[in-house]
Amino acid sequence: MDCSQNCTCPEIGAWNVHCENETGLCSCQDGYHGQNCSLQCENGYFGRNCSEKCMCQNNSPCSPVNGACNCSSPGWTGDFCERGRAYSYYIQNHTD
């Protein structure tokens, strides 16, 4: 192995600014992937090396770090954006 080359990792995306000695790869933070951790997870994936699939429904994006759903699509709510807001309003205002 040629140790004369200096390899660095980005401050955002990698756990450390220096790559691993044996592999030359960066150790990515959750939400990032790629040889030098410069790529953020594609929509629909999250976690370490973007290996987890999001559970969000109704075209709602998730956090690339922890998979939390962002119910940005109009009319949806709930942990996975699975409930219509009209349904939630009805449940809150019509308790038996």
Automatic annotation (TrEMBL):
<dbReference type="InterPro" id="IPR052108">
    <property type="entry name" value="MEGF/SIB"/>
</dbReference>
<protein>
    <recommendedName>
        <fullName>Laminin EGF-like domain-containing protein</fullName>
    </recommendedName>
</protein>
<feature type="domain" description="Laminin EGF-like">
    <location>
        <begin position="7"/>
        <end position="50"/>
    </location>
</feature>
<dbReference type="InterPro" id="IPR002049">
    <property type="entry name" value="LE_dom"/>
</dbReference>
<dbReference type="Pfam" id="PF00053">
    <property type="entry name" value="EGF_laminin"/>
</dbReference>
